[in-house]
User: Fold this.
Amino acid sequence: MPDSTGSGADSAQAALDAVQRYPREAIAIAQRVLAAGPEVGADERSTAERAVGLALRELNDLPGALRHLRRAVRVAGTPRARALARMSLGYGLANAGHTAEALRAVTAALPQLAGADAGRARMQRGVVLHYRGRYDEAVREYGLAVDIARREGDLLLEARARNNRGLLNAHRGTAGDTDDDLSRAAAAFRRLGLDLAAADTCWNLGIATGQRGDIAGALRCFATVDEEYRRLAVPRPALLLDRVELLLSVPLVDEAVVVATAAVRELRRRGMASDLAEALLARARAALLADDLDTATEAAAAARARFRRQGRRTWAVFARHVELRAAYRRGTRSAPLFLAMARTADQLDATGWRGPALTTRIEAGQVAAALGRPGRARNLLAVAARARRRGTANRRAQGWYALALSRRLDGDDAGAARALRRGLAVLDRHRVSLGATELRAHSGAYGHELAAEGLDIAVRAGAPARVLVWAERWRANALRARPARPPTDPDLVAALAELRLVSSLLEDEVLAGRPATALRGRQARLEQRIRDLARRVPGGGAVLAPPGVGALAARLGARVLVELVAHGDRIRAVLVRDGRASLHDLGQLAAAADLARRHRFALRRLVTTGDAAAARAGAVHTAAALDRLLFDPLRRRLADRALVIVPVGALHVVPWSGLPTCAGRPVTVAPSATAWLAADRRKLPTGPPVLAAGPRLPAGHDEVRRLAQTLPGARRLTGPDATAAALTAALDGAGLVHIAAHGTFRADNPQFSTLELADGPLFAHEWEAVDRPPGCVVLSACDSGLTGLRPGDEVMGFTAVLLALGTRCLIATVLPVPAEPTTALMLDLHARMRAGTGPARALADAQRAFGAVDDGPARATAAAFVCFGAG
Assistant:
């Protein structure tokens, strides 16, 4: 945030000096000066009013700040004091959104000031120009202020001017001396004992770090400064906007929507008009990424109206860009939209908004192509393609995307594919720089357009091997990047332990029917802290290249790989058998997703309501319909072979053995062919089996007791011994792990999915700390195999954590399951695996044995289990 203040009469100087150190104390000192009555001189009174006004600005009370700053102008006795008051008033007016009046006030003050005072006025004028979007002029004013400060030996003025110049250059993405300005400003503030100003400058360093694409570094910086703000007890609601910007850069869309909405509410409450307009724009941008086009349009229009009233025309252009993008996303392809987008792209470029300008120009090019104007499209895309050489990873990738689109217009599909591969390689390198699983998973959103374009080229060419590679280039990329081993973080360990305790207390209160509002709030705060801590993990590792048909065939043997692919509104399949790949059109993607949803509902109904004729008929009907859509075009090639299925979208949670084609057949499900191949190549560790049972599940304890007879030498964790720490330690190097415990899947954040143990829930987050992953894991808990899907078919939850760690195989449920039939199925499964049968075959045989009994709920229970990874 730009900061500013001024000098004052000697008798009120103490109050003015305390503004940024201790704003509340500054108000108290100034009020004592003002309470002294007529004996206080006019200039001294003006300085005290300035101190109160500037301190209220630090505390985000803008209406109060403006009242005192206007009074400071009125009561000043000399031209110099009046000019200093006008200078401070200009800053307050700019914050309130009255930028034209602010510029007049500061400009009027300049002729009356000399020396360091003139330097402060120059800096203040830079602040107002900064707010108005006149960035080049603002940088010049900041530079003049730095020069004057150095000539006058005013370290405080130099620090403030450097902070403001560094922040402006960070937002504009200008490399230059941004970090040098900010680092020198922070050091100067510390030397002067201005802790709050130093904290603000360190926050700005976080902004600069995020603008360079170092998300983890920015998060670490923000977290450190957050603690300092809490220590100083000074609110900074406008900083929510910087957090939204960082969240959108990942993009963590859902969280960005929540934070942007909170920022709008808080800034409106505090009357911070300038920041409120920016918050509305942030809300519009977050809604656009969330495909909430109505909210995006409404919020962007409201922001644009406010910016225009405030004289902030460059910001109004940014808001217009969001409105136009929402229209484009709705499918509008018209000449007026094209002209507006092309004009807005030029305006954005002229004012330094290079990222939005790039996106708008690419989409304007696509509109031009759709309208039959290839020449205009090529011109726009040629300008956009220049971005591939500089800027953040996303911006460079967009530049390569623009080049690919241009080459496709010229009929050069091979050249387009090369450009798309270059763009995706940029994003791969960026993904590796993100250490946290959550950040890697969400970053898949940026590759969607590039991979979809490459996939379209391959599909239209009828080249199944190339379709497979393009599908793999975007699918489950977080699993293609070898995980960054998180360092032992005592703060994270402590936060997870506290969350475990709070979650247990919360469940006790809920079960007892007592209100638990305070505990829910504490749980939410702890989860946010854990997310913040986990996101700071530095990146590293390498990216696995997508395998070709030959590499897959060498491991498949007699098995058949079926990789499902979304192509526009169609679902297609690449089938690999005996070293050859074929491409098949299966039908409408929406129809497949709808049938999958109805099939899950029918099986869940059978499990929960019993073997009613209607429930059984519904399950049979939906299974047959989904089976026909997915497998009829492939049936001749499948024969009776074992399958490796790579689903797409909603099909990740299909209970596959409930479909006629898969019933009794070994089926392994993988997030991607790359992940399957990596898992299939792993050797199983040789550690002893581990059997664990959670509380409130008597059948689970019986299950573990009986399994121990099948698996001699197994380590048992039951009763009070089945703690989160004990189980996590036991996972290390175990050949086989079986856990019978209640499970909860968290769709909002799958990393907080849990298994209930003796001392509370074990979170998916915690398994990332295991050094040597177990070979095969069986989870008989309800919904333990469910995954959260993010753009790029990125899976999150226990499945993703275990496969990323290096677990070869996971058998888990995608539906709720009753205890008693589950125990019988698990005993049969483990007996077959103990006899040497592979996990996928053992599960299929156990499920077929269950299916031989004419019992609908038992069949549904068996179908709920899926073999993930490489069985």
User: Anything to note?
Assistant: Confidence is low (pLDDT under 50) at residues 1-9. The first helix runs from residue 13 to 17. Residues 116 and 153 are 9 Å apart (CA to CA). Residues 490-533 form one domain.
